Amino acid sequence: MDIGLPVTSSCSREHQKIYQEWFALADSDGDGRITGNDAIRFFGMSKLTRPELKQVWAISDSKRQGFLGFNEFIIAMQLITLGQAGNEITADILNNIDIQSLKPPQMDGLDVLLAKNRPSPKKNALDLDVAPPAQVLSSVQWFNSKSTKKIPLSSVTSIIDGLKRLYMDKLKPLEATYHFNEFVSPSLTNSDFDAKPMVMLLGQYSTGKTTFIKHLLRTSYPGAHIGPEPTTDRFVVVMSGPDERSIPGNTIAVQADMPFSGLTAFGTAFLSKFQCSQMPHPLLEQITFVDTPGVLSGEKQRTQRSYDFTGVTSWFAAKCDLILLLFDPHKLDISDEFKRVISSLRGHDDKIRVVLNKADQIDTQQLMRVYGALMWSLGKVLNTPEVMRVYIGSFNDKPVNEAAVGPIGKDLFEREQEDLLSDLKDVPKKACDRKINEFVKRARAAKIHAYIISHLKKEMPSMMGKAKAQQRLSDNLEDEFIKVQREHHLPAGDFPSVDHYREMLSGYNIDKFEKLKPKMIQVVDDMLGYDIPELLRNFRNPYE
């Protein structure tokens, strides 16, 4: 199964050297990023029409980050070469030609500019495939710096950097004031914004989760175990790395450049069942996979797991871009624990895809009945009016068992596999949009949390009977939520779980909470209403 992501390494070394020099010239501020303004100046030398250059940018910046790195710049140059040769510039044109034979495009007046800039040592500082870290380092410093000096949003050079800036200046102060990081979600770090998109696989034991990852990678990852019994006994994050190795959970959770620091809240019992498997692989440069232990049934799940399994899956669900629920045609029953796990994915319905794996083990008639039974079971667990998308296939390295499914079944499996593959291809492309979406969701959740906390504070007496008042508020928390909802005209669906809040409140003194600070709420409202749209406008396709 080939994910078909563009690999720039197929460009010859000679051409890469040329592009390296061009990139250094086009990158006006030396931060390793070609912004829209840089592109307008440099790409204009190609003499392609504006609609053609619009298409070049759209294909090169497929992840919609608002800038081009060195790899994306090479793709843009290759597309310009094809455009100059009279080809129509389309998204799949580079898949259908020999990239090695593509020469650099003709750029009018470029030789004169290069001659002027060659003596400058700064312009030769760009190393191949490694963007200078000036801008990236500065965004790391935002999270570590104690300085209150605000950096203007106009100085950022990507959408993600803009979100980091907005978070530090406008959203984080609200979260800190009302303990959002303790009640709802830990504060975001630099690595949370920079993390590659993640795909999590969930399912009962022996539904083919680890085999599915092995099938996509076309090789096994370090520490992978496959068997009919519950073999994967830990959460394994499979990600890109310089060499093949496994890193223990306690180590990975404290690494500042990894987005897993929030998992320390689940304790050592969980971290001992968590590991990171790193290996060099082109697919892992685009996507990180999360392999999970098989969900057990009955008492085993509650008594034999020494950590909050449902809580951990919920934490990963919030971070992931896609969640694959795998089912086996011989194990369609959804255990109580699996039901709880699926319920914990509430709010992430748009990320869920269902995979009926190992479907070639049964004949067509049985498959039809199994599919019906699966949809019936899911309907009782997933409380959504829409029908969940189900992919049917056999996602392993063996050829489809045509004797069982027949030629029609084989054709169906191949088409379903292509559809799922297309979904996975879209994950890196939609990663930036997903981060914006999650950021806006977090801002809205932080606002509602601030309203709830300040409302509870307001309901407390100023002198006597504080303990009784706190108990009463905790007992009647659902009614208090309704009051907050009506007072501020908030949607009921955006409110958090009453039981979770009640449990969290038991460890706090409500009287110590902050009163409502309308200015802080207004700052977040302005961020949602003006700053984020302005940020997206600044980093849209420069030729629009």
From TrEMBL:
GO terms for cellular component: endosome membrane; plasma membrane. SMART domains: EFh, EH. Pfam families: DUF5600, Dynamin_N, EH, EHD_N. Keywords: Calcium, Cell membrane, Endosome, Membrane, Metal-binding, Nucleotide-binding. InterPro entries: DUF5600, Dynamin_N, EF-hand-dom_pair, EF_hand_dom, EH_dom, EHD_N, G_DYNAMIN_dom, P-loop_NTPase. CDD domains: EH, EHD. Residues 193-429 form the Dynamin-type G domain. This is EH domain-containing protein 1. It comes from Dendrobium catenatum.
